Amino acid sequence: MKYIFGPVNSRRFGLSLGIDLSPDQKICNFDCLYCELEPAKPTDKILNPPNVDEIVKEVKEALKKYKDIDVITITSNGEPTLYKDLDKLVDELNKIKDNKKLLILSNGSLIYKKNIQKTLSKIDIVKLSLDCATKSCFKKLDRPLKSISIDLEKIINGMIEFRKIYKGTLIIEILVVKGINDKKEEFEKLNDVLQKIKPDRVDIGTIDRPPAYRVEPVSFEKLFELSNYLQNIPINIVSRKDSKNFEKELNEDEILNTLKHRPFTHDDIKTVFSKSSIKKFEKLLKEKKIGEKKISNVTFYYTIDK
Q1: For residues 248 and 274, is the Cβ–Cβ distance under 8 A?
Q2: Is residue 27 within 8 Å of 35, Cβ to Cβ?
Q3: DSSP string for 226-244
């Protein structure tokens, strides 16, 4: 198959069947320093865009073969919202997806456009990237096409407006690069923005694969530290590298207070809590002093106020 790949088992989204809207080359309006694809000049046009009917035919064939798919993921070697027939494709996929969820992985660059908002509002799970809240950071890290380099504010406002009309699961992804967007001040400003966007979940990660340019990841400890600047939002720390010896010894009150201020994922519990603290956590869970909520394949634990 030309446009379909996988299934891929994703911790964040479940078993995913991918659709690549630009299988032959990287087509993106960003040239992010951390991208796992080769460096490429930003562009806003997909050359030789695939035919919707051909994509749908391949998806139908794949769904017959793979019955246990959780999500059908629209992605690209670049940015999928550049695909001119995206609205038609989404409509056709919604007709055949059955009980599967439709997911798109986007850099969020065009979310301010009303037609993009309308199309994405028909998708079950929308993941948008937002690595920076300041223009200088955005320009340095995401390296956008010049025509949108001054439009970070427009992008952020577009995300805020989209949230008002969108009824599905909205996930914001932040990828942290050492020395660029790993500062307290940047995350405090990101927090201000996220309070207005009101996503269902924020995923924070760092470089896991060889990047396009010479940039470095941050440690798990740094990701955890930065995550604490984001308030009242479920945070999923994606990267678990270098997380050994990070375990904390907490009593029951400390566990409840921690989860009251920030819901933890199952991976957080395993990584951050000591073995004895995990036993206390499990006791509190049985006593229903801690609740759980699943947001797109990731379970969060929080304190139940009584």
Answers
A1: yes
A2: no
A3: HHTTS-SS-EEE---TT-T
Alpha helix (H) ranges present in 80-219? Answer: 86-96, 114-120, 135-141, 152-165, 184-197
The per-residue pLDDT for 272 is 83
In this prediction, residue 67 carries a pLDDT of 86
Q: Which has the closest alpha carbon to 131: 185, 187, 209?
A: 187
Neighbours of 136 (CB within 10 A): 11
For residues 236 and 201, the answer to whether their CB atoms sit within 8 Å is yes
* pLDDT less than 50: residues of the chain: none
Tokens coding 194: 């996220």
Residue reference for tokens 């056709």:
92
d(CA 110, CA 46): 14
Structure token digits, residue 104: 């798109």
* pTM passes above 0.85: yes
Q: Are strands 169-176 and 125-129 parallel, antiparallel or unpaired?
A: parallel
For residue 271, the model assigns a pLDDT of 82
| Residue 100 dihedral angles phi and psi, to the nearest 5° | -80, 155
Kindly tell me the burial class for residue 179, based on how many C-beta atoms sit within 10 Å of its own C-beta (0-12, 13-18, 19 or more): exposed
